[in-house]
């Protein structure tokens, strides 16, 4: 197969959804269809429904399992699909955001009983930064859900994206009969009790087909009326608008009943973009470029309890990875030979022989790789757009045993490198302030400091409302600002100057007083 063909058949996507909308269940069914697992239901243990903290501990225990779902590659239709998992726990995570920089499209899953929920809104904001194409799956049609037209209106209004229904549901809850495919003029009938297998679907061609009346009775006439209405009131599918992130094809079904997920996969493989270009500080790198490039979007520690290693997840942007190849670690200006990159197909860490643009590979990291690092075939360029988010929660971290300051600092810097947490050191004192986007991160950090760095640490509350990275057009201006705002400034884990605001009002005043300084809530590596 030519390099162009290798790239053209790849589809790299992630699922965005609010917790409990059905992401895990859909992932299971996607893998079932991708023939990775025989019987759906083996991706993750049943949720305990307990507090998020125990969820994380459990995740830690089940790491072997949850990690295999970090990146899943499987064939579908004529494509090779990469599904990138986003962290599953209740907490809000920066990892999720960064994972979204490594995909070319997203599947948005909505619980049709609930509609658009908070996390989905936030994640959609992130996909907007790159106009990522979005496919929508309305889930849980086997329950009594909200009116389908109202749901689409809500998506259009709240998320500001046009909806083009590809399928349309017939009934819901106990009387969910299946879906009508508006493009193909076909009804696909749903049968219950087949959630764990690939169903043999019954198709009825043509909405006016009398077979339909025989199959679903009065629902047939209702469907005909409704479809007329839907066709008049909704958008037609338009590939260009989809690719521009302005219109989403919408599918309906039930992940639990394994109905509709394959319809969505058909759409995804047919329409979602092949690996896309990515911007660097020097030029735009096209996926078809034969020179190897890639960037690291995630670092995960202790994936294998037997090897205390850390794995850096790299998205290949162009060219080909071959086992044993040499790559340039651009930030360090060093060439490294990579013989043991890993992938996570079907539950085992398999060694990758080769991989192409759009694929994700895992590099063993012994502390030299950071989130945002670029690797190339020798060229000095750096991928841009891998975000760090200003934390919203802050605590002072303190040692139980003051003699272990070195370990604490080392641990925090490494955890900050991974993106597990952010660390700020005020200019005016020796405090260590931990900043997080979600509360769960605090627990994770103390737990990991104890188990991995043998440091007992505890938190104290601190009067910080928010933080902003600060930049100015010239060093001189930044120096001046540094003197004036000294008491509010700190350095983050990578020594970037940060404004630490005790209140939002304080931040507002600082912004007004210093128009020469930019206060950034998102920083790109
Ligand atoms: P996640 O938090 O988004 O990963 O959601 P899960 O996949 O864990 O699903 C949350 C809950 O919704 C679980 O109890 C699932 O069994 C249930 N669920 C998922 N899909 C469906 C569906 O299509 N119908 C029904 N009735 N329940 C579903």
From TrEMBL:
SUPFAM superfamilies: EF-G C-terminal domain-like, P-loop containing nucleoside triphosphate hydrolases, Translation proteins. One of its GO terms (cellular component) is cytosol. GO terms for molecular function: GTP binding; GTPase activity; guanosine tetraphosphate binding; translation release factor activity, codon nonspecific; translation release factor activity, codon specific. Keywords: Cytoplasm, GTP-binding, Nucleotide-binding, Protein biosynthesis. Its main location: cytoplasm. The keyword Protein biosynthesis applies. One of its GO terms (biological process) is regulation of translational termination. The keyword Nucleotidyltransferase does not apply. InterPro entries: EF-G-like_DII, EFG_III/V, G_TR_CS, P-loop_NTPase, PrfC, RF3_C, RF3_dom_3_sf, RF3_GTP-bd. Residues 8-276 form the Tr-type G domain. Signal peptide: none annotated. It comes from the Bacteria. GTP binds at residues 17-24, 85-89, 139-142. It is found in: Cytoplasm. Increases the formation of ribosomal termination complexes and stimulates activities of RF-1 and RF-2. It binds guanine nucleotides and has strong preference for UGA stop codons. It may interact directly with the ribosome. The stimulation of RF-1 and RF-2 is significantly reduced by GTP and GDP, but not by GMP. Belongs to the TRAFAC class translation factor GTPase superfamily. Classic translation factor GTPase family. PrfC subfamily. This is Peptide chain release factor 3.
